[in-house]
Design brief:
This protein is of the alpha/beta class. The protein has 2 domains: 134 residues, HUPs (Rossmann fold, 3-Layer(aba) Sandwich), CATH 3.40.50.620; 150 residues, Rossmann fold (3-Layer(aba) Sandwich). The chain contains 9 helices and 12 strands. The strands form 2 sheets. It has a 10-stranded mixed sheet with strand order 3-2-1-4-5-12-11-6-7-10, with helices on both faces. A two-stranded antiparallel sheet has the order 8-9.
Amino acid sequence: MLEKIVIPLDGAKLSEAALDQGGELALAFGSELHLLGVCGGPEEKYCGLMRGYLDKKAEDVRRDFLGKDLSLKVVVLSGEAAGQVIDYARRERMDLLVIVSHGHSGIMPWTMGGTANKIIHEAPVPVLLLRAAAAKKRRPGSIFAKLLLPLDGSAAGETALPYVLEIAAKLKSKVTLLSVVESGQHVHTIGGLDYIRFPEQQVQKMRQDLSAYLDGAVKKFRDRGIEARAELTTGHAAEEIIKRAKAAGARLVAMSSHGKSGLRQWVLGSVSNKVLHAGKTHLLLTKLPPNSELSRPR
């Protein structure tokens, strides 16, 4: 599933936080780990510095994982950072991008915040986004020890499920599967944006359907010997995801970038945008293939 993992590095110390998590996944899945640097221009001086920096980081990773069978590749490209990272992931058929939410002036300064934002929205592969603030704390233990998987009951919303299933199986993670019943929805009216509550009967029917759906999803994990439990709550999806992640002690939230709301609603819309910008946990965002029937707006 994760045969190739790419970690873009900008020369900043903070961006290097991705090496531990990328290395951990690479070892678990037998992945080829690509360390990617981007020079802002064709100047040989800066590209040489970047190459030396990446070679040093590769040595550090090999030393940290001494005795482990870890395959490493160092790549230096020239151009605009986000575009080069995205194109490389597509061209080399990467299975995962691992990035930190922001970095600051390294060898070739580029703002990882803006770069990460563009990668999240445009990368054709799943993105593991590591929060800068959380990465700085260097808490003991793996970020994969406790995972939160929000599911909305749709097939399109399940794209993160197989990734969590495999990660949990290989790294012995504990998984909480969360579904949130929305008690209403915002609709555009003549007076602006109003919140319309669903009838109680409709809310109860949604709870029953999601409860049965969650039971089936939990069974997939337990059948693999994975410790998993279900949570069903009512409220605003993004707020509940953030709140439940904290309550469950989850350090990673894995969610689909496209759920029942339609194309772009999870990544660019209300739910994922709030989790992305207001959440504190690391985030794994997965996507539907662009030619998938489920990726088309309804």
